[in-house]
Amino acid sequence: MRGITKIYRETGLHANEDVSLSVEEREIHAIIGENGAGKTTLMKVLYGLEPPDDGNIFLRGKEVIIPNPLAANKLGIGMVHQHFTLIPSFTVAENIVLGIEPRTKGVFFDRESAVKEVGRVIEEHNFHINPRTRVSSLTVGQMQQVEIIKMLYRDVDLLILDEPTSVLTEQEIVKLFENLQRLVKAGKTCVLITHKLDEVMQISHRVTVMRKGRVEAVRYTRDVDCRELSRLMVGKSVLFDFEKKEQDTGKTVVELRDVTLLKKGQERPLLDHLSLELHAGEIVGVAGVGGNGLGELEDVITGLRHIQSGAVYHDQKDITNIGPIAMRENGLAYVPADRLFRGSSVQSTIRENMIVTNPRRFLRAGVFDQKKIQVFAEDLAKQFSIDGNPDIPMGMLSGGNIQKVILARELANKTDFIVFSEPTWGLDVAGSEFIYKKILEIRDAGSAVMLISSNLDEILGLADRLVVLYRGKMVANLRNRGVSKETIGEYMLGLKDDFPKKKADAS
Amino acid sequence: EKESETAAAEPFNIAAFVPGVVAGSPLYEQLVEGAEIAVAEFDNATLKVVEGGFNQAEWEEKMTALAAGGEYDVIISSNPSMPFVSMNVAKAFPDQKFIFFDAYLDGHPQFSTHLYNQVEQSYFLGYLAGLVTKSKMAGANPDLKLGMIVAQQYPALDKMMRPGFEKGAKAVDPGITVDFRVIGNWYDANKAADLANAMFDIGVDGIITICGGANQGVINAAKERGKYVYFMDSNEYHQAPGTILGCGVLEQTKLVSEVIREAILGNVEYGKGTIYHARDGYVDFIDSDPLYTDNVPADIQAAQKKVVDSIRKGELILEVPEL
Amino acid sequence: MNSAQFAFPLLHNTIGIMTPFLLAALGGLFTELGGMLNIALEGLILIGAFFSVVFAAFTGSLFLGVLLGIAVTMIIAWIFGAISIYLKANVFISGLATNLLASGLTVVLAFQFFGNKGVILFQDLPKLPKFTIAALQRVPLLGDIFLGHSVFVYLSWVAVLLAYVVIYRTPFGYRLRGTGIDQKAIRALGLNPQRYQIAGILISGFTCGLAGALLTLQLGAFVPNISAGRGWIALVAIYLGNKKPLGILIASFVFGLAESVSNYAQGAINVPADFILAFPYLITVAAMILFSIWQHRKSVV
Amino acid sequence: MKHRRTEFFVNTLSLGITIGISFLIVILMILLMSETPLKTMYYFFLGPFTNKYYFGNMLNASIPLIFTGLGIALAFRSSMFNLGGEGQVYAGGLVATFFLLIINESGPAVLGILVALISSALLGALLAGMSGFFRMKWNTDELISSFLLSSAVVLIVNYFITGILNDPNTNLLTTPPVNERFWFLKIFLPSNLDISILFAVLTAVGVYFFLFYTKWGYEMRMCGLNREFSRYGGINVSRYMVMPMLLSGGLHGIAGSVAVMGTYHQCLKGFSGGIGWNGIAVALIAKNNPLAIIPAAVFFAYLDAGAKAAMLHSDVTFEIAAIVQSVIFFLVTARAIHDFIRFRKKEVQV
Ligand SMILES: Nc1ncnc2c1ncn2[C@@H]1O[C@H](COP(=O)(O)OP(=O)(O)OP(=O)(O)O)[C@@H](O)[C@H]1O
Ligand SMILES: Nc1ncnc2c1ncn2[C@@H]1O[C@H](COP(=O)(O)OP(=O)(O)OP(=O)(O)O)[C@@H](O)[C@H]1O
Ligand SMILES: [Mg+2]
Ligand SMILES: [Mg+2]
Fold this sequence. Notes:
The complex is a heterotetramer of chains A (507), B (323), C (301) and D (350).
Chain A (H helix, E strand, L loop, with lengths): L1 E7 L4 E7 L8 E6 L5 H8 L7 E6 L2 E3 L4 H6 L2 E4 L11 H6 L5 E2 L3 E2 L1 H14 L15 H14 L4 E5 L7 H16 L3 E5 L3 H7 L2 E6 L2 E7 L5 H9 L17 E12 L2 E14 L2 E7 L5 H8 L7 E6 L2 E2 L4 H7 L2 E4 L14 H5 L8 E2 L2 E2 L1 H14 L15 H14 L4 E5 L7 H16 L3 E5 L3 H7 L2 E6 L2 E7 L5 H8 L7 H7 L1
Parallel strand pairs in A: 3-10, 3-11, 6-9, 9-10, 15-22, 15-23, 18-21, 21-22
Antiparallel strand pairs in A: 1-2, 1-4, 4-5, 7-8, 11-12, 13-14, 13-16, 16-17, 19-20, 23-24
Chain B lengths: L1 H5 L5 E7 L7 H15 L4 E7 L7 H10 L5 E5 L3 H4 L1 H6 L4 E5 L9 E6 L1 H16 L11 E6 L4 H18 L4 E6 L6 H13 L4 E5 L4 H11 L2 E6 L10 E7 L1 H14 L6 E5 L6 E3 L4 H4 L4 H15 L11
Parallel strand pairs in B: 1-2, 1-3, 3-4, 4-5, 5-11, 6-7, 6-8, 8-9, 9-10
Antiparallel strand pairs in B: 10-12
Chain C lengths: L2 H31 L7 H19 L2 H24 L5 H24 L5 E2 L8 E2 L2 H4 L4 H5 L2 E2 H19 L1 H11 L1 H6 L4 H25 L3 E2 L7 H11 L4 H24 L4 H27 L2
Bound molecules: adenosine-5'-triphosphate (2 copies) and magnesium ion (2 copies).
The site of one adenosine-5'-triphosphate has 15 residues of chain A, from β2 and α1.
């Protein structure tokens, strides 16, 4: 790609400016850069999803024009998006062949040969997925495999992966990397967009660093280290170290007792007799492979989902199934993983987003006191250095700023326990660091914190206690002292279980 | 010719307000036709026809709009409800004169109303239907059942047409019953057909249909099932010869043209309601049409003629109840 | 009166009554699966009704009439779709607008060409052929209930089968359903979701044209507003039928039965006609609520 | 602030273009269909302004539309669809008439009017609220259920009007007229325009205030934009499936009683025809902004009045109004036109 420029019409934003990128055959080429650096945009241009305003694309020396993804596929270019593009109610095979379906008599969808051909591709590349299962019952990692298989089925040589690891667990990442390496060995080429520098170091041959829509540098991976990369990315060197005060834990704030969550038509409980205590001034880090109950725990402890048996206590008071409104009255604050849909109303103004958890306090004689809201909003914006006029829709903010608004709002009320779920997903280094600082501040102020995350560095760095869920069951509950990533990995995969007896008791 | 000269001096403008649409409603067609005939006789007379649509709630407003312009010497209309719709309009425009046909209200100084004896009209059809259902005609069956399908219920229907039809049928045989069904609107012809079929299924062999545009459904169903239809207000034998066995008519064209002629000449008496009977020649049964004489057996024709004639001559009197 | 004697004609009529609902709902299903709400069914039926009979009278051929009627209906459907999809209008309003357009246009054209805003009678229109097999006519049930309907009835059954095959057994069906579930996913595959949505709307135009043609051709006349709310019922049938062809068949049958029962009930029981006329709607609401309770139970433990 | 001003400019311009295109289509249609096109156009566009009667009636026709438009907008704002307006208006008119007939001579007039307004609001609220309740309880699609219920209600109201409440002294299908004490004051004779237009305007302001200055209004809007977010934020989401429907139905009911006390003075069969449907169009043209509903309703009434005038004084049929209205609906929400203008404006600025 040479001299690619892309301007988004609606905003007039120069997402790519004179970007050149060359990828060699059979290499794994990493692209890194802060949020909004233009990585995804560049790849969308390459994949025919966005027409470039300027610049040319060359494939094996010949100039090509790529009007749409189908054309890209024909040229051997495939892309796996950051957000999956699968139809949940279709089976794996149906999803994979969609768009280039095998047919019988020229008109009918040939389901049998779809299954057969997809099965062949799966086998050929050593994946383990049943082509007849519905996508809705797959784990996130498996869905990603389906996306990759979808591209392989289209016989692409160049595979673009946009932040493939952000939603995966350590184990799944390992698996993914194995797959990628095998593909490269088989003659394919990979472009990998990521925020995680260790991954770049681990797997890529070359790395392109982007900043503010331009290419900052191109390096052979063996010639650089993490520190240099992050300097290239943000312009200054950032250190990952958590200055954590030692602190005694206080009283029990929230307690889960034998909590069980069932889903109709599914035998295995989503949460299986889970018992857990959150203490004041303590961060409990919850880890687990996707699909093992992390999301469910998030929903249950915040009152969004009802449990079938067990109980939840707050300050010794039974608050089982009281629902999200009463949970908030009991002092819950909550920063959700899904910040765009659950955490904010993107069409509403920032102001309106800021007052949702406690609109009552801005009422005077039953009517909103607009001035008070204004003052409050400006105040929070200053405290959390949020860029943006409080009157603009939340959706116009950048990802990092959206997360800051949510955080500001959640901390504005008096809270004694706070749940963070994937607080730094998709955030850049500076943004993540800001969030980490806040989490530690909250803990030091004496709140109970639950940190649900698939980022093990984050958990190991911040948590006082580590909990691991496997198949909805707690398999570890340890103090975070000298615990290694590998140990946690073993728990996460179900190789180790500290509470095997409990399960026997229950059944 | 002479008349037009005498009144040539001043223009005389007439508005015909049709509470519904003209086409498909015989009485409205005849209202317009009659008015046109009268107007054509005078050089100074004009006619404007306004269709008010089916929503009766809008009639008053549209009527007021007509009166408000002050352009019309007289507003004519045809429908039992029109005097009542126009009451407030008349109050607001005390100089406006109205002539209503197919309606009755005595004593309002701005209104001249003209009502037909529709008991007689439907009695004719009821009697014929009674004769047919007891006959050996191809479509008739031994059941003593007749049917009536209407668009909706309204006073003139409940007080004149329904009792008239039943009375006529029972005059043939007191054991005859009349099955009565409502469509709910004036346009769902397919529902009308479904209702007709449902009636045929339980032994009805002749239906009187009073449902505007939806009549078509009844006629169609009857034609397909070889059953019979009795039609109100105009001569419609040609629509389905052999299926439409009888047509009871009102001579609205004649009456309207006569009354309008007098109105243009300034001879109409306002403040009066008049009722017109078969003996006056304004209500009749069509027994001269070849499509009637050819399709109805001679014995039935003879029996029917006896009754029709006695009403025409005023020997058999059927009173119009108070509306 | 014994009940079996009643049951056969009742069911026979039910099949006739349900046909327009069924046809319109099957087409509407394709729009719905493409992720768009088709409020316009009512208007499209009306357009189909008007143009089919007018063209049939004009050409003297039922077949040509229906064909041209469907063509016009599909053009109007295309306008509805194009405005919703390409001009990005709110489908809800553009659907209402289509209904309004249909009621206005048919009357205005009738007035313009026939000088008439009421019934337009076409005397010498050929009769709609009925399907009867003399040999089978005597077979109980079959002869009494399923035979002797107009060709449209059998067309509608074929349409159910066809809809099933197209939706579940062709690439088009998969892509259409995919569009309804996640447009972005379809776009990412290099397919154009808008094309499938337009196709879904055109199909609804096709079947609504058929449904309308049935209403006027079996009558040999056009009456303004002859669709009389059937498009709305069809929309309900799509939901009640759980967005599946077979479900729609059942839902249409339920409504047809309710209406048929109410037609028979008017003579049999002494309840004001208006209440009986309201009965099909109430039955349908009740069915809808029961259905959603059942679905609700299924999704909650 | 700047952001808002630009939005306003873009909105106004795109509305102008929409209406311009629609009028061009009308002119084309009139040229095709009328033998006296100039006269027809004169009456179509200017007819409503040619005399006090037409003008007043046009404003009068907008009154129920303001109420139903507000009702629809309230529901839309919280993502609920009330498709049962017709029945709610009709039932509201009936119950108001019923109580006024019972009260007749007794008690002060204001009391009777209050009873009428409240009873109509309650009945309307009950009818629409049922659909909201079913939605909350079992996730029954409120769009369809409200439509079906309304279809049944219309027929049942018909029964009361033509049956037990029918006026025996007239051949109209109607209840007897209510006592003259309850008739709203006419403020623009000889037209039908009555004092309730002020009430309608006040209600619009009230709804605006409710939506943007009260906690309920705020929470309702949040639920409308994103239910998951609202639930997360501690808003009682179930409540806001029922409440907006109750309010929406209430406003529809009031539209019915106001039409009875202001215009018809009795409950005529079929008087609600179109009021409910047109309310949806009005709300959507106004983009669910309560204040914009007032001009939208007047505009809607203007189109109707123009078509009526053209029909009365010229040779075209009333139904051309339906075609014009449909064209306007088609274009008014076409976001593409809107975006195009916004885009243009940006380029000019840059
Ligand atoms: N859909 C959109 N419409 C208008 N403006 C947008 C849109 N998306 C993003 N922007 C603007 O583009 C800018 C960059 O957005 P982006 O989300 O890429 O930021 P970012 O670099 O990821 O920031 P952060 O590091 O805080 O997450 C933001 O200021 C935002 O206002
Ligand atoms: N459809 C769009 N319309 C307008 N602006 C957009 C659009 N998509 C992206 N942008 C903006 O373009 C810029 C580059 O976005 P891009 O998605 O390429 O960044 P990225 O490097 O992939 O960031 P991230 O790490 O957050 O995925 C951002 O400021 C973003 O807000
Ligand atoms: Mg990206
Ligand atoms: Mg008999």
